[in-house]
């Protein structure tokens, strides 16, 4: 009985994934057939109700926001972990880890509201309209910091205690210990953290929707309002019909492919690390 | 008078909701699709079962939706045994749902076109699109030509309009929204020539963007603007060509951006549907129209006017 129950639970999760993918692909078929991937990548503009379907600016928007956010968040996460483990008093380090975990629990709409009411007006004072790549990247960076902190902290905690003693015996100071032992040892985890953060960033919708400006254009500067793939779907899906609707499903398919690809890379990195026999 | 908050704002206060709703819908649709969806609303609507249990399905415009939801609630209380389900998803969906038999009544927040004479239309009222700025903005009014130039980007600072020396932050609406269509039609702009700084979805998101940016300009349903102003939002409605939108200027059409609120049915609606439509257009729901800042149309006949 238990075996059957477990098997059906396992089967269900596969089934749901398969059905969602199949559904997305099936719903987007009209746009692949009528417009095609080439046009969707090369059309200069996105006016689906007047027949132009260029997704290029949105893909660039998604990628630039995520990359900028991770470029900020990954070093901060790493720095926070190293400080908490090796520099700060133990109780403050504990607070750092705890607050990172709490940060992960904040709903993304709250991050978005904070971004819209705090970050955007600040940036707007210098570079109006304030909504754009920079605001979105700042908000997103805060949202993905916990991923790095949790992963890297676990990696640092796993380092064998004897290493530290051996390093001390070899006369290594704290700086050299971190530089020559800790960083090389956690590098695979760091890569994994970056990949997971990027995937999370690409998929984030609500918070980004509220602060990125949502104008379909190329991210030519950090202060330009841009649109991402996810926000396009969220903004237009409730009102889209026909090919327009199919094009939004195509956005979803493209996003899914990119994110799954990234997760695949992350998985491969983990495998390599495991077979290293560390 | 405003003893209970209108339902719209409970659900749509956080404009993120539209997005999460569509994702949820996506997931739900994925499951339904497999179960052979489409039968969900179709066959069952308006079939008077035992004890006269009638279900009326209404779908379409998110502008009309909140109003009709309240009218439906009142109608259900007065007619036990009748259920009215109101779902929102845009005017275009309202029309296509009625055509495909998925719903009994479609909500369309504009007048019907010549090509849409295959359905039966009932004008229930009028709404205006209000142009809003931050309450701190000293600009007092705009002409339609100035509004066009602002949205085209040929006026990009507030100075020539009598405001501070700040860039104009143009808040626009996402493709497919009927508020956007109405705005484009009234201004005569093509969506490709509009140079927005921010693109928003729901009315609430436009208002939040204007609140967050004192040099922003946006346009929303008048009802949403007045509701939020009453609620303390620091925004102002600008007169266009010297006319402020209110019940009189909207009804007479003096205010330049108004829209017709229409309900559509199949050519031969069921008696239960006709009865509900009569209720919507009666004095019994007048206070609800007023609460949503819409102008109710009570005099129109049940026949579609020859010219929309």
Descriptive report:
- The complex is a heterodimer of chains A (278) and B (308).
- Chain A has helices spanning 2-34, 36-42, 56-87, 90-105, 108-126, 133-157, 161-169, 174-203, 206-211, 229-236, 242-275, and strands spanning 46-47, 52-53.
- Chain A is mainly alpha-helical.
- In chain A, strands 1-2 form a two-stranded antiparallel ribbon.
- Helix content of chain A is 79%, strand content 1%.
- Chain A has one domain (28-275): Orthogonal Bundle (MetI-like fold).
- Chain A is built from eleven helices and two strands.
- The radius of gyration of chain A is 22 Å and the shape is globular.
- In chain A, helix 1 crosses helix 11, helix 3 packs antiparallel against helix 4 (90-105) and helix 10 runs antiparallel to helix 11.
- Chain B has 308 residues and is an alpha/beta fold.
- Chain B has two domains: 7-115 and 267-296, D-Maltodextrin-Binding Protein, domain 2; 127-252, D-Maltodextrin-Binding Protein, domain 2 (3-Layer(aba) Sandwich).
- Chain B has helices at residues 7-12, 16-34, 65-78, 91-99, 144-152, 178-187, 203-212, 222-230, 247-252, 271-280, 286-291; strands at 54-60, 82-88, 105-108, 120-134, 169-173, 198-200, 216-221, 235-238, 258-265, 295-296.
- In chain B, strands 1, 2, 3, 4, 5, 6, 7, 8, 9 and 10 form a ten-stranded mixed beta sheet that branches.
- The longest helix of chain B has 19 residues, at 16-34.
- Chain B is elongated and about 65 Å long.
- Chain B starts with 6 loop residues before the first helix and ends in a 12-residue tail after the last strand.
- Residues 1-51 and 300-308 of chain B have low confidence and may be disordered.
- Classes of the chains: A mainly alpha (278), B alpha/beta (308).
- At the A-B interface, helix 1, strand 1, helix 5, helix 9 and helix 10 of A face helix 2, helix 4, strand 6 and helix 7 of B.
